[in-house]
Amino acid sequence: MVRGLYTAYTGMRNEQKRLDIISNNLANSATAGYKKQSVSNRAFQDVLAIKIRDGSDAYIDRPVGTMNLGVKIGEEYTDYGQGSIRHTEGTYDLALSGQGFFKVRYVDKQGNESFKYTRDGSFTITRDGYITDANGNRLQGRGGDVVIPPDSLTVAIGKSGVITADGTVVDTLALTDFEDYDYLKKFGDNMYEPVEGATEKACTATVEQGYIEQSNVNVVSEMVSMIAVTRAYEANSKVIKTMDTMMDKAVNSVGRLG
């Protein structure tokens, strides 16, 4: 019975984690460039059950078979699939069609600088002419921070990332891609950072000016998954209640009859 309680508990804990991920996906379904997360399940490693000192078997220890102690989270991963592209007509709204990331310069509270990567192309321009994201992180070009002359009347960004202001080339976007996305981790604020072992490669994505890439979350699919997870959670909860009732009767009723 105690083993049954533990097995049901692992099921509830597993479904709670899945529910947290689904809820986060739904909360970011309208976030530009957001990539949904998913999780896999796997069982704990099977253990061998052995019958010990059983008088009916001449007190010889014999294997009974294997048993499993429950389920656990296997792997949490990100789906980097392309999201739909929405037309906005914004000069500094950029979308990537294909694989790759925008590169931005991030400065933490201690003043330490590092480069982060994002698919969120909803950029704006500052009074000084810097193109930044919603948090003030500066968009990077091959020459560093992208700066547009403040008196520019027209700014165009071509599909290859070439930036022109009033017909004059200013810079080219430092678009970046990676050999293996398993070496990227979520940093926060819709950004990613490479971990040790990450290898950059040439970006083949094209830039669409005046467009924004939407989240790749399918709201209907996530809602269906949420219902399934909720039902699985409730089923495990009922198992625990049943086990608790059985243990109560075993201790208070069967024990009293003895």
Secondary-structure-based class equals alpha+beta
C-alpha geometry:
elongated
Q: What is the rounded Rg?
A: 27 Å
Extended strand count: 21
Note the main sheet.
Answer: 4 strands, antiparallel
- Our measurement of the CA-to-CA distance between the termini, rounded to an integer number of angstroms, reads 20 Å
Helix content: 25-40%
Mean pLDDT: 85
Please list the strands of the largest sheet in the order they lie side by side.
Answer: 8-7-11-12
Quick overview:
The chain is about 25% helix and about 35% strand. The chain is α+β, with helices and mostly antiparallel strands.
Explain what the structure shows.
- This protein has helices at residues 2-27, 219-257, and strands spanning 37-43, 47-51, 62-67, 71-78, 85-87, 94-97, 102-107, 113-118, 124-125, 131-132, 138-141, 144-145, 155-157, 162-165, 168-172, 177-178, 184-188, 191-194, 200-201, 206-209, 211-213.
- It is an alpha+beta fold and 258 residues long.
- A four-stranded antiparallel beta sheet has the order 8-7-11-12, with no helix packed on it.
- The longest helix is centred in the C-terminal third of the chain and has 39 residues, at 219-257.
- The chain is elongated.
- The two termini are 20 Å apart.
